[in-house]
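seq:
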Amino acid sequence: MYVAVKGGEKAIEQSYKALARKRRGDLSVPEMSIAQIREQLPLAVARVMSEGSLYDQDLAALAIKQASGDLIEAIFLLRAYRTTLPRLISTVPVDTARMTIERRISATFKDVPGGQILGATYDYTQRLLDFSLAAEQQASDKEETSATNQCAAREEQSPMPRVLDFLNAEDLIESETIPEGDPAPADLTREPLRFPAERALRLQSLARGDEGFLLGLGYSTQRGYARNHPFAGEIRHGCVPVEVVPEELGFAIEIGDIELTECQMVNQFAGSQSEPPKFTRGYGLTFGHGERKAMSMALVDRALRAQELDEEIVAPAQMAEFVLYHADNVEASGFVQHLKLPHYVDFQSELNLVRHLRQKTEMERTSDGAEPSAPDQKAA
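struct:
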């Protein structure tokens, strides 16, 4: 399909050097460190970790730096590195009910046990440029204490009940129980995506999916393209302990904490012959602080359950193959950007075909007594 380009190796080497100069920028400006990216661009780091399928803030920050801030390129770098890592042990499924809450809100109930915790959010900002951030604040930075690790040890926090447990108690929302034997889901990082895809596999794909693509699909469901009326049942962000069960011990031990954002969407369900009317769920979970991605994921998850709930499939967000095959930004980026590679042979064959068709058309018109085209058109 592609033809070789002679002398391309030297050109590529020069391109590497140009890229390094572009990445570094003005040498009179201090270089940005990995720690600065990790601590001051946490939302970008969270997205790269989620869509790169690897929880490591330093590596995500490194990828962002190497990609000059191109998050999709950074995600690609992180995924590529992930494939080189050995799989040592599988963790116990994390229990988000044990989350040490940094932020927790609900749009379905005003008063919830533990209260609404606003935490850090842009929701209430005025979206005006803060020019004070452009000023040098080195002195104040030295005086302030570091608040780097969101999962650092702190006072024990009482577990906060899930908001949807109140609907569960009245049997007004579908219950989600662990199936008998709790079979392990397919691993999308090791096996190709196959259809029909179970919900666990769909959620894996959505967690790795492009935030912008899922945001657009989620927005489409709110505009009536999936006939769902969602409510944000609960959005929580904080740190969750990670556990493993070593073979030599036979019981679970904690090996660390990870920062997560979880979203539970509540949607209407009219019921069926076998099910009474009740609320249904859409679910989203991301690494780090990623509310927009988690909410979009929950909206699309609910839309993809249309067949399971015997709903008519009429919108793109309800079509599993369309959503899951196109949500992966690494796949999409690769396929789009491959158009920059040489396609000389392909184009020449199509060019010859178009010339042949034009010539054939001209001959037919001439044989029918029509006036021939202008000379310049023939030459074209």
